[in-house]
Amino acid sequence: MSxxxxxxxxxxxxxKSSTNNRNIAIPDGLWVKCDKCGLLMxxxxxxxxxxxxxxxxxxxxxxxxxxxxxxxxxxxxxxxNNSLISTDPxxxxxQKLYGKRLKDMKNKTGLQDAVQTGLGNxxxxxxxxxxxxxxxxxxxxxxxxxxxLTRLIETATEKKLPAIIICASGGARMxxxxxxxxxxxxxxxxxQRHNNAGLLYIPVLTSPTTGGVxxxxxxxxxxxxxxxxxxxxxxxxxxxxxxxxxxxPTNFQTSEYLFEHGFxxxxxxxxxxxxxxxDILYLHRNHVNN
Length: 290
Description:
Layout: H1 3-22, E1 31-33, E2 40-42, H2 43-48, H3 64-71, E3 78-79, H4 98-109, E4 115-122, E5 125-132, H5 143-159, E6 163-169, H6 178-196, E7 201-209, H7 211-214, E8 225-226, H8 237-244, H9 255-260, E9 266-267, H10 270-289
Parallel strand pairs: 5-6, 6-7, 7-8, 8-9
Antiparallel strand pairs: 1-2, 3-4, 4-5
Helix pairs in contact: 5-6
Function: Component of the acetyl coenzyme A carboxylase (ACC) complex. Biotin carboxylase (BC) catalyzes the carboxylation of biotin on its carrier protein (BCCP) and then the CO(2) group is transferred by the transcarboxylase to acetyl-CoA to form malonyl-CoA.
Family: Belongs to the AccD/PCCB family.
Keywords: ATP-binding, Chloroplast, Fatty acid biosynthesis, Fatty acid metabolism, Lipid biosynthesis, Lipid metabolism, Metal-binding, Nucleotide-binding, Plastid, Transferase, Zinc, Zinc-finger
């Protein structure tokens, strides 16, 4: 083989190899890049760390099902009121019919609405727990979310259990109008009866917790916990700045800002949340028993 033929063959082999490499498909979702620090992680490693970046401690969004796995003891979850579904009492339409939007959300998330409620154990301590899911219409609070949380709290009161609500919501669901706003008072009344029975209620504020949720049950806890750097607010930054005609601090409406000003009691990373909840529940149970 001449030198020119050998070089030509090598060139063809390199071209073929390059083409083969381009055709190798890497499945989506295997690797996750941190939005804050840019660290590239294998998705299973991220899930094992409760969806918290091991380098910068950025908390990725977590679904209600993922939080059930993260917080509760294995096989202790018992969902309640799973059959409740939203209707369209106002015949509301924005970019699409509200009924169609609900159907799309159910198909996309596998959920009936924006909260899962149930009973379970945290380090063998029984609790009643509600977990909001931002994937379902931004975790907005409509009639079903309000009814499920109210029934959860009433069950906790009847069974003399501590109640925990993991908050993740854009606020009241505008497609249900006044009916959504009524849920604020309904849930708050149930919490008052729960409190009168001497029982513990802990809201855990995740990012985001805003609007009518912040204005009601998210801020009515005996101990209010938040995840680091969570967005916690009632109205948006721009609305407030336009109203008061002043610029707000850069960290305004974050967990850290609210902690400094006494609005929340603890900031706990998600990786430590289960153990810290167990510690609080244990201390409260012993106090009540004594």
